[in-house]
Records
---
Amino acid sequence: MTIHASRRDVLKGGGALVVSFSFTGVVSETLAQEAKPLALTEVDSFLAINAAGEVTLYSGKVDLGTGVATALPQIVADELDVPLSRIKLIQGDTTLTPDQGPTWGSLSVQIGGMQLRNAAATAKAALLEEAAKRLDAKKEDLKVVDGVVSAGNKRLSYGELIGGKRFALTLDHAKPAATKDPKDYKFVGKPVPRVDIPDKVAGRFTYMQDFRVPGMLHGRVIRPAAIGATLENVDESSIKDVAGVVKVVREGNFLGVVAESEWGAIKAAQQLKASWSKSQTLPDAAKLWDEVRASKVVKDEVTSNIGNTAEVMGQANAKTLKATYDFAIHTHGSVGPSCAVAEFKDGKLTSWSASQATHSLRKQLAMMFGIPADSVRCIYIEGSGCYGRNGHEDAAADAALLAKAVGRPVRVQWSRADEHGWDPKGPPTLIDLRAAVDSGGAVTAWESEFFIPQQTAGSFNVPLVAATLAGMPAGDDIAPGNIFQNSAIPYKFANVKTVCRRLASTPFRPSWIRTPGRMQNTYANESFIDELAAAANADPVEFRLKYLDPNDKRGVEVLNRAAALAKWDKRSSPRRDQQGDVAAGRGVAYCKYELTRTYIAAVAEVEVKRSTGDIRVTKFYLAHDCGQIINPDGVRNQLDGNVIQTLSRTLIEELKYDRSAVTSLDWASYPILQFPQIPELVYDLIDRPNERPWGAGEPSAAVVPAAISNAVFDAIGARLRSVPFTPDKVLAATKGAA
Amino acid sequence: MAQRKSLNVNGKAVRITIDDPDMPLLYALRDNLQLHGPRFGCGLAQCGACTVHVNGKAVRSCVTPLSSLTAQQKVVTLEGLGTPERLHPVQRAFIDEQAVQCGYCINGMIMESAAFLARTKKPTEAQVKDALANNLCRCGTHARIVKAVMRAAGA
C-alpha cells in the first residue's frame, strides 16, 4: 500500500470535482449528486470500491505519526475480507472525508476506527446480499476470500458487484452492524508493519514541509517582539539587497515577507527592520503560581462530590494532610516547525497543512476571511508529530493571509523560534489537595481544587495568531481542551469532592498538549495518594488496591500486573536503608483514563544523586489495557512515545519568559530528553479481543510524572510537588524533608 | 545576484543557481534539488534533522554554507545512502525495528548512525546513545532507534 501515490491520485479526482463546481458558478443537481457524501450516517462517506476491487477509505481522523494509517486499514481489511494491499487511505480532506472530529484524545481507533468498521460491515452485508441474488445462492453459503465472493464454483468480485457505484446505505453508529467474530481476524491484533516507514527511511515520503504546488512562493512571518505589541514602523529599505523579495505584507500587527526562494524569504525576515511598541502583559515568572492562584475564577466546576467532605475535614479531631502541586507551562515541541501552503483562486481558498482538525480549521479560516465555509478546502498532509494543537493551524492562517496578499500560492515554514515562541501552550496547572485520615491511617475524606483556565463552551477553536494580529475575525475562545478530565479520582473514599476552579485567563494562549489535563491532574492525584500511603506506613500498591472498586476488575488487574511485571518490592515508602550519595527507589502510579476507558499502571525505578539532585530513571514498567488491540507493535510504539515524552516533560521542560514574550526560543533554552537519559522500557500489554478498542495514543502519559515523583520519594524521602523535577528542586525538597 | 554553484550530490555532479553563496546547503538540497531526506528542524545545528554526509562525515546542512563546499566534496543525503532495491543496512534495520513514529527526525538518526557505524564497528549501546545525543526526537522513538542501530551494527 503506497499511501502517497494513492493520495495524489484521489486528490486529482477530488480537485477536478471542485473545479467543475467553480466553473459552473452554481451547483447543478447533477454535479451536486457527484459530490462525495460526507455525512457520518452514510457508508459512502467512509469507503468506496472501484471496478478493480480497490478500496478507498476516507478518514477524518489522521495519522499524526501514530500509525493509524496502518491500524485503520487493518480494521477494514478484516471486516471487508480484502487484502491490506488493496486499501488506500485518504485523510483529513474537507472535500472528501467526513468530519469525525479532531484527531485528539486517543480516539482515532476508538471512535474513528469503529465508525470505519461499521461502514465496512454494513458494506459487506450489502455486497453479500447482492452476490446472493446474482449468484442465485443462499447468503449463508457464500464465502469471501480477498474481496471475491463465491458460491461453489461461481464467483463475483467486489469490483464486479459494486465497482465505482455508490452503496447508498445509511449507518447508525449507535447501533452498529454485526461485525466479525474477533477469532476470525487476520489483521486485527497482529503487529502489521507500518505502511509509511519504508518511504520515511528512504527519503521518499512527502511531509507537509516537502509539499509544493506550481507557481508557489515562500513566506515567512515576523512576529511581534512582545506579545500584545503594536507594529509601529517597517523599514522596507532594510531588505533591498535581498534577492527575489516579492512583497512585505503588513496588516495591522501582522508582518510577513514573501519571496521567490525560501532562503530569500528567510533572509528578508531576518533582516527586515521593524519597530514594535513596548508591551508587558506576562506575569513575573518567579511569581507565576501566586498569579495563577489570584486569577479571577469564572466558574467552579464540581467534577465529583460524594458524601460530605467539609463535615469530615471540619471535625475537631480530624487528622488532615495538605499538599499543593504544580505543573509548568509547556510547549508541544515538534521537531519540525509548523508549515502550510495556501492558494486563493476565484475567491476560494485551498489550504494544505498538517492540521489535526481540518474541518474546524476550515471554519476558522472562513471566519477569518469572511467567506463561506464551502469556499474553503482544507487538506491534511502529514507533518512533524504535533502532540496536540501546536502551530500547524496558525501556519495555515499565515499562509492564507500571505497568499491572498500576493495572489499566488504561498508556503509558510515557521522558524524554530516561531514554533517555540508562538505555538499555543499547555497552561500552568496548580492543584491543592487535602485529605482526612483516621487514627489507623484510613482515608475518610479527599478534597482537591484544580486552578485551570476556562474552556469556552462548545468550541475548541484556538484563535489563529495571524487573524488576531491582523485584526481579522479570530474569535475570543479560550480552548485548553478537556483539561478537567481525571480531576476526579478512581478511589472509593467515603467523602470526595473535586473541583475545577476555571480561571478567566492564563498567561499564554492555551491549547491541549498530549494527555491534556489528565497528565497534570493524575500527577497530583497519584502523588498525593502516595503521600497518604506513606503517612499510613502502607505499601503504595496495597494502599491503592484497598480503595479501588473491587468490581472494576480490569483496573485491579492492571495494577497487580504492573506490580508483578516490576517484581514490586512490597513495603512502605520511603526506604531508609541507603547511606551513599546515590539512592535508588521505586514508585507506582495508576490511572483509569477519564475514569471511563484505558487502564494504565506504571512502576518507575530511579536513582537520585543526593549531592547534585540529579534524577536518573533506570527502568519504566507499564501494564496497559486498552481493550481490543488493533496493532500491538503500534501500541508499544505509542507507549514508548508516551513514556519518553512525558519523562522529558517531568524532568526537564519548562517554558521560560520575561514580562514581554517567550525567551526559551530554541532547544538550548527549552531542552528535551536526549538518548543517554532514556530508561529501559518494559510493558505488559493486556489484549482483550472481545472488548471494544480504546485509545492508546495518550493515556499512558498520565502515570509518568507521579510514578517518578513517588520513586524519588521512596529513594530519598523528599516529595517532588513541582514539575519539572529540576536538580535544584530536588535539593530544596531534600532540605525540606531533612 | 544569481550565480552558479557546482556540487556533488548523491554521486552526481550538479549545478544549481543561487542568489547567496552563503546559503546553507539544506536549502540547496531541499529547494534547488527537491530532495526530501534532509529536513529543516531548527536551523541552529541543535536537532540534527538536517544531517547529511560530506565526504562520509555527518554534518548539519542547516549551518553549512555552500561557500564552504567544493564540487569535489561528496554530499550524500538519505536518498543516496542506499537505493530503493538495496537499502543501507541502517535503513533496513529501522524498518525491521519499526523505529519510526512521525519520522521527521529519522533522516538525522539514520545519517548520524550510518556515519558513526562506519567508524565504530562494534559499538556498545551506551556508545550509540552518546553518538546520537545531539539528535532530538520528540515522539519518543529513542529505544527503538538504539535497537535499530545495534541491529545494523550486527550486535
Note: The CA atoms of residues 584 and 730 of chain A lie 14 Å apart.
---
Amino acid sequence: MSVTTKNAQSLGWKYPNVGGISTVGGVVTGWNDSLPELTQELVDSIEAEWTASEGHKEGRRKAYLSIPEQLDMQYWDSVNGTTKWRDAVALVKSENPK
Amino acid sequence: MSTVAVDTIETLAGDEHARLVQVVSTITGTVATGTTQIPWDDTPPLSSEGTEFMTRTITPTNTNNTLVIEVSVGFMDTVAINGGFALFKDSDASAIAGGYYHQSLYEECRCNFTHVITGSLGTSLITFKLRGGGDAAGTFTFNGYAGSTKWNQVEKSTLTISEIRV
C-alpha cells in the first residue's frame, strides 16, 4: 500500500540533509533506510508537526511588502520620526500568528 | 509520452527542406520532489546525485545522424540553493549537459538548455535521464511549489529529442 503526502516539503524539513526522499504526484517513491520506517502514520505526523511549526511562515511571506518598499518605509520613518515600517511588520505577524 | 515520426519534407519539385527524421518527447505536469543534493562545485553532476525526474528513450536510425536534446523544466526549492538539472545518457556516471541557477528562498524557476550530439550514435536504444537537485537541505520540487502542484498541472516540463539526418 502506497504512502501519500499532501505536503511533500514537510519530509525534507523533518529530515534535513537526508537524501533519497522522493515523491511523485503526492506518493512517496523514495525513502532513506537510515530513517524510521515509512508509514502513513509517520508521514501524517510529520505534516502535522510542519503545520504547527512552519505553517504561518508562508502567509507572512506573501503578506510582507517587498524589500525596496520596506527600505523606503524605514527611510521615511527615520526622516519623519514615524513607526510605519514597524507597525506594518507587526500587523503581518499578528494576522499570521504562530 | 508521445512520438512524432516523419520522413524527409520536400517541396512538390522534390527539393528537400528539412531532414528531420524523428521527434520524441516526454511531457509531464506531475509534481515530484526529492531531497538528494547535487554539490555546488566544478565537477560534473553524478548519476548518484539529485533525483531522477524525467526519462526519454530514442533509437537513432543512423549512427551518423545528430540528436538535438531540448530540456525545459519548472522547479523550486524550499531553501536558497545553487542547483538545477543535469542530463545523463544510459548508465554513464557523469552528466553530459545541464543547467544551473541560484535560486532564492521560495522562488520558482524555469530551467532550459539544449544539448547536441553529433555522430557515433549507434543504432541501439538510448536512454536519457534528467536529474535535479540543489546544494542545500530542503525539498527540491519539480513541476510545483513547495512539494505541491499548482495551476492544476498546466505548467509542464518537457524533454524532447530530435534526430536530424546529416
Note: Chain A touches chain B through 25 residues (CB under 8 Å).
